């Protein structure tokens, strides 16, 4: 059973006490010997057998491909009549990993840090990354009147992250250390408070938080609805501004048993990525319609247009950025006392096969 990183509960600012960071050591030696070569699986031809593909995703902007691809019928068309698609939506990565481990889903769009945690805890056996989905789309935003203009100004401030040990939480804590600061759990004076994104928006608007490191569209909503300002666009920290925010993973057993289905899924994903980048206005509309259908609350045109510019829809999983995120998480004590071996995490042969068929540049592992 997947045991996600222990999370602090979402609390009001006044009820949060300084505590020692207590993340259960979940590292198990994850050797790469169990890694599968997807190339040996990807050569199947003909229609797949009757099978159900259970696909997970989150109702947000950084998960555009499944929402657009399902709405346009691209996934159904590429997967074919013999594959029944069932979808399940999640609000957080650990829940999606839990479902993957339980066999409740076969593939999901998800962020890098829950993927790393799931891979490590399964001893490298149960998770494979098969494609990238979104780069960027995360910002450090601060309250306009918080008096934060340089890194040193974060001392004694209260900054939110979406989830303890999650992608933005690790990015924030690592950034603080690289700038001569530390969160209180590591002996510093910056309060990093894991907070639901919607709550972070309202708390910043009420002056009870000084800022937040959050994904889109929440960064843009804080800017537009809570008087925030951009302190740091995370793209500025990465070569060429590229870092993985979302990728597509599959359950290893499903990949082994249904390589033809995974290949068709990846082909649908790649074709949808191409269409989104060629038709951004319609893609935004379809994504927003999906979000509204799932959550009963869509985004304003002003929010979605601004937020969309801060991310890039891509097939590249940007493996180098995931490895850096894993190093940062390890340095912060989230991955036990031994660095994890991630050598078997990627299975990109199928993706590169599809990219070659479509005369597109292969991605690197």
Description:
By secondary structure, the protein is an alpha/beta fold. It has two domains: 238 residues, Periplasmic binding protein-like II (D-Maltodextrin-Binding Protein, domain 2), CATH 3.40.190.10; 103 residues, Periplasmic binding protein-like II (D-Maltodextrin-Binding Protein, domain 2, 3-Layer(aba) Sandwich). Helix content is 37%, strand content 18%. The chain is built from 13 helices and eleven strands. The strands form two sheets. Strands 2-1-3-10-4-11 form a six-stranded mixed sheet, with helices on both faces. The chain has a five-stranded mixed sheet with strand order 7-6-8-5-9, with helices on both faces. The longest helix is centred in the C-terminal third of the chain and has 20 residues.
Radius of gyration: 20 Å
Q: What is the 3D shape?
A: globular
Q: What is the domain tally?
A: 2
| CATH-defined topology of the largest domain | D-Maltodextrin-Binding Protein, domain 2
The CATH architecture assignment of the largest domain turns out to be 3-Layer(aba) Sandwich
Task: Specify the number of helices.
Answer: 13
Biggest sheet strand order reads: 2-1-3-10-4-11
Q: Which class best fits the helix and strand makeup?
A: alpha/beta
Q: What is the CATH superfamily classification of the largest domain?
A: Periplasmic binding protein-like II
Which strand-content bin applies to the residues? 15-25%
Give unreliable regions as ranges.
Answer: 1-45
| First-residue to last-residue Cα separation | 28 Å
**Quaternary structure of the protein:** single chain
């Amino acid at each position: 059973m997947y045991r996600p990183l222990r999370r602090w509960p979402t609390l009001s600012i006044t009820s949060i006490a300084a505590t020692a960071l207590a993340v259960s050591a979940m590292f198990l030696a994850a050797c790469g010997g169990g890694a599968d070569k997807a190339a040996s699986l990807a050569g199947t031809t003909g229609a797949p057998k009757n099978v159900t593909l259970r696909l997970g995703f989150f109702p947000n902007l950084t998960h555009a491909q499944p929402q657009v691809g399902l709405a346009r019928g691209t996934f159904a068309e590429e997967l074919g009549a013999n594959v029944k698609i069932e979808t399940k939506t999640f609000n957080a990565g650990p829940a999606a990993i839990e479902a993957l481990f339980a066999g409740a889903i076969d593939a999901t769009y998800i962020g890098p840090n829950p993927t790393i945690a799931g891979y490590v805890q399964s001893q490298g056996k149960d998770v494979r990354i098969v494609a990238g989905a979104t780069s960027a789309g995360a910002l450090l935003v601060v309250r306009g009147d918080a008096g934060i203009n340089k890194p040193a100004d974060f001392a004694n401030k209260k900054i939110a992250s979406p989830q303890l040990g999650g992608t933005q939480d690790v990015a924030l804590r690592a950034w603080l250390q690289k700038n001569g600061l530390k969160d209180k759990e590591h002996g510093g004076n910056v309060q990093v408070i894991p907070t639901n994104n919607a709550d972070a928006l309202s708390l910043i608007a009420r002056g009870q938080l000084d800022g937040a490191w959050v994904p889109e569209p929440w960064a843009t909503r804080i800017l537009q609805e809570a008087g925030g300002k951009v302190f740091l666009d995370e793209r500025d920290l990465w070569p060429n501004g590229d870092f993985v925010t979302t990728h597509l993973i599959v359950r290893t057993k499903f990949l082994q048993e249904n390589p033809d289905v995974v290949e068709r899924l990846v082909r649908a994903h790649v074709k949808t990525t191409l269409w989104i980048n060629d038709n951004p206005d319609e893609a935004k509309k379809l994504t927003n319609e999906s979000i509204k259908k799932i959550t009963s609350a869509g985004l304003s045109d002003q929010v979605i247009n601004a937020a969309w510019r801060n991310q890039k829809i891509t097939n590249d999983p940007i493996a180098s950025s995931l490895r850096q995120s894993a190093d940062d998480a390890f340095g912060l004590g989230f991955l036990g006392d031994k660095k994890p071996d991630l050598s078997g995490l990627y299975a990109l042969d199928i993706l590169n096969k599809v990219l070659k068929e479509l005369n597109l540049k292969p991605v690197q592992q």
